[in-house]
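Summary for the funding panel

The consortium committed to producing paired sequence-structure records for every protein in the target list. Below we show the first two records in order, beginning with the earlier of the two.
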Amino acid sequence: MKVIICGAGQVGWQIARHLSGERNDVTVVDSNADLVRRATDALDVQGIAGFASYPDVLERAGAKDADMIIAATHSDEVNMVTCQVAHSVFSIPRKIARLRAKSYLTAIYSDLYRRDHMPIDVVISPEMEVAEAAMQRLAAPAAFDTEKFLGGKASLLGLTIDEDCPIVNTPLNQLTDLFSTLRVIVVGIRREGTLFAPESGDQIFPGDACYVMAHEEDVRRTLEVFGKTHRKQERVVIIGGGNVGLMVARQLEERTTRVRVKVIERNRKIAERAAEALEKTIVLNGDGMDVALLAEANIERADAVLCVTDDDKTNMLAAVRAKSEGCPMAIALINDPTLEPLMETLGIDAYINPRSVTVSSILRHFRHGRVRAVYSIGDAEAEVIEAEVLSTSPMAGRKMRDIDFPEGVLVGMIRKGDKVVRPTGSTVIEEGDQIVLFTLTGDVPEVERLLQVSIDFF
């Protein structure tokens, strides 16, 4: 597939890395020649320095025969115009735009993106995606990573294994015997920095970071089996009152079960805007690392602190300070992936990587077949893919044990009609089933072959 990526920043670079690694024909466009050079030097991509919305620049990038364009520059307006030019001048069939401004995302204006107006097929909002990720982290405070699949009926949980975990040193194939009714599968293990898909005879050791797929009804029991306690989130402190912090506070206000929320924002104007927009939330103007201000926010009585300012180091230090003042759970927004290994050392319970969240959203619309969701794990090390099994798929009509899955691929959960089931070797995968697979990045092309490219992708 021929893809043009406009914007060579963190998101654009990561998407280019994913797609070029899967042998797609990728061209990167950016007005910053240094960023273009960085992409072409490090990745197997072509690069064009110029403004992405200019027709002549897109023509040089190969827009005449491109299958998809992803507009992910720092400007919403450039991204919108780029999609318009891609449609009107070059008839590119698939157009994805990243938009940040809230006004462009309001539902009442959704007609703006119709083909006869502003022809954008998919709109990605980083702030909305990150806010949703934050809500999921708060919903599963014992997990360092979490994502929902199959319409919310299955959950991916990232769990760090402690010394007192009840199933330490237990072969995975024995978990079924010990907990016969528990609908859960360990799909990935990170050990000493290496992520792999475990075999049935592998064991779990202290210090492992496990990715497990659990039926939504079994999440609480799964946490107990893995030595985690489920804590209610009744008091939450949010440090950072910008777009993400505001969205999370609004969603917490709308919950049926009451959550007491306090927002700390350093910028007075932003704090005033947040105070006007929120009805039940207390907004404090000041530094989120100020001990006196944290005390005023009753940080020692909070169940969780969410640090979502626009500065990684501020988020990390604020999370550490809140923990030192007695808050049991700290979540930090981290843009720089090189800082992620420090999270455990600093005692930060979970982190959200906006780049990874946005990349996951974009990949969902790129993957072949009837792909419904894609979640990127780590630094592009693995993906969890939810897809519908087509009649043309090599999997259709076969038992799990008879399908030749690559070593780095595991099936986590299957939805048959209204029923979500834990897969076994005798489970028959049928046309129309929705399947969730964990796959190491190197095995993604083989997974796409199993899902079978369908003409209805376009």
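The next record, for a separate protein in the list, is shown here:
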Amino acid sequence: MIAALAREWRLLAGPARLGLLVLALLASVAVALGLADVRQTRADIARVQALEARETQAVIGFAKGDAGEFGYYRNYPVWRAPGDLAFLAPMRGDAVPAIMRLRMLALEGQINDNESANPELLLAGRFDFAFVMLYLAPLLLIALLHDLWSGEREAGRLAALDSLPGANRRLWSPRVVLRAGGVAAALLLPLLAGGLFEATALPRLAAVAGMVLASLGFWALATLAVARMQAASATQATILAGLWFAITLVVPAAAHLAINAAVPLPDAAAIARENREEVHAGWDRPKPQTMARFVALYPAYASQAGTGVAFHWKWYFAFQQLGDLAVAGDAAARDAGIARREGLAQALGWLLPPIKAAQAVQHLAGSDVAADLAFKARMRSFHRAVREYHYPYLFGGETMTAADVAAAPDFSAFAAGR
């Protein structure tokens, strides 16, 4: 077999070799860009954490133990630490940013009224390994395999080649293996290099390699099936190009529109606006009415809910939380709708193996919709922990020492997962 593969490599046309080289180069560039993105994200996380530490010391200097001052001025960094496969499909940032700084104020406005990514960059799309695997590699595979038999037939050599003893084993199989294997190697070698650089766990790296091979296997089988047709090579290329266009572009785009129409979502900007309006309205409501609603949520503070006529931080943070409560239903409905849309998209993927393979790679990389929703859930849990940590100081009127500030919840305890 090795001698046969060496022979087929010598017979492989120059443009085909160049195509394999270009694919390997593009995959390498995609992996390098992914690694750079991961490195930048980690650097940003470290920078924001260091900034928060300095800001907290500054707040301690002027807050003078006032828990309300700490709650109002302190920023809490939250982040999604890239995993060991994040370089394959970096986090998009168009749904939820990888890094945010939260305050103890109404949360839903902070989540839904955030400029998460540059719209012009999103319009152009992201060039990553998943893109190369899904869109570019199949085109080269089609180009290399579509005229395997029709090219020989049009050159007048097919009958003679088929008449050779063991033609399938000695001629056609090595030719298919060399071409398909070359495309696979062009993807897997940069993948392996990136995995080694990131110290990726071998089972996870093998899982991605399996998805790559599954996607290429689908296209190889489809291409060989069309190549066996009694048709001109140009016709075969047209059929396969149409199949690629349908599977990778037309059907997913049509499904996206259909799923969005079938599963409407509350608008994020509307949620942020309603949240902000509810908070602003809290200034004008009678304090006893606000505190009564808050005490219904936290009965333990009923005896400490009095505020008098002057401004009091516990009243201020009470109507901040009530602002979140006012839009909690819409926020939950939006997340449930996003999850429902993702579920339908995943179900569609089972009908389109290359799409399912790309979805699996995004899931392993931690850049899929499920990871976005999980991050939002962790942010909400962390924000609640911060609020509830401060409430005893706000309602009890206790001084908040530097040790108390240091003991406040830290997102590191909530940051598990991708």
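Regarding this second record: The mean pLDDT is 89. Residues 14-63 form the longest helix (50 residues).
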